[in-house]
User: Fold NAD(P)-binding protein from Clohesyomyces aquaticus.
Amino acid sequence: MVSWAITGATRGIGLGFVKNLSMDPNNQVFALIRSLGTAGPLEELAAQRKNIYIIVTDISNPTKLDEAAAKVSKVTAGSLDVLILNAGSAGPDTAVLPPSTFHGKKEALDLEIGENIKNNLLSNIYTMNSFLHLIRSGAEKKMIFISSQSGNLEFTRITGFSTLLGYSVSKAGMNMAVTKFATELAPEGIKTLALSPGWVNTDAAKAVTGDPEIRKVMLDMFHKVDPKVDGPAPIEEAVANMLRVIRNLTEADSGKFLTHHGDEEQWF
Ligand SMILES: NC(=O)c1ccc[n+]([C@@H]2O[C@H](COP(=O)([O-])OP(=O)(O)OC[C@H]3O[C@@H](n4cnc5c(N)ncnc54)[C@H](OP(=O)(O)O)[C@@H]3O)[C@@H](O)[C@H]2O)c1
Assistant:
């Protein structure tokens, strides 16, 4: 048995991981979600596949996370092989603004940065710490953070992607936290990775590029790093690519920020 826990498992990439992994009865899949409100498709799948365990928790609350880890521990007898930190969002409406437009808007800037740091960085550190004792006893010993190309300096510099300030800062900050965990935990054989999923056809992607004009602006920027990219990839394809990278993760690559192709260049 290989045990996997995935945050943000109701929709999009998170649900894609659950669908893929639960096909194999040798996997135990823990779907960590914040609410059953959006979990209809996940609940339907869990009704058919007995290796899916749905756990409602709050990743911004370490006490609730400890309780969630205790529930996983009951099923696995005290271990977890792979933790996937997938839950994430781009935060307030001000995400469309470039940094200099926040001059004179202190409250808006505090919210733009603060909300994203809370949701995409602090919550992930809480989650890693609450599940670490289970990972220590696991066979795989892997903690994977689903990052974003917009948290990469070179991608941002070349594309000219000046918006999504708080989101990008929070993803870049969490990439560093992932490296810190890697350096601390290497002596125990625990491996961490920040992993970009590519551009994936989820609700989050549609919210940004659903408008044809915005989609064209995005494509013009993305073509500066990859002239061939023509739109978001299907969830199934992105998940299969990421699982290949996760399964191939060794101590030599622990703490890196890799693309879904397993390198540091092919963002699409
Ligand atoms: N799609 C892309 O092209 C793309 C590109 C780069 C990076 N990513 C990253 O990939 C990850 C998954 O994104 P997605 O495209 O699958 O997004 P999505 O379709 O919007 O799904 C997001 C999932 O995360 C959950 N979630 C969001 N904020 C949360 C919070 N504060 N606490 C708990 N759960 C939360 C949502 O739960 P609810 O159902 O309860 O809302 C949902 O299950 C994110 O970290 C995102 O930054 C995606």
Q: What stands out?
A: Residues 194 and 257 are 5 Å apart (CA to CA). The first strand starts at residue 2 and ends at 7. The pocket of NAP is lined by residues 8, 10-14, 34-35, 38, 59, 86-89, 119, 146, 148, 197, 199-200, 202-205, 232 (CB under 6 Å). The two ends are 32 Å apart (CA to CA).
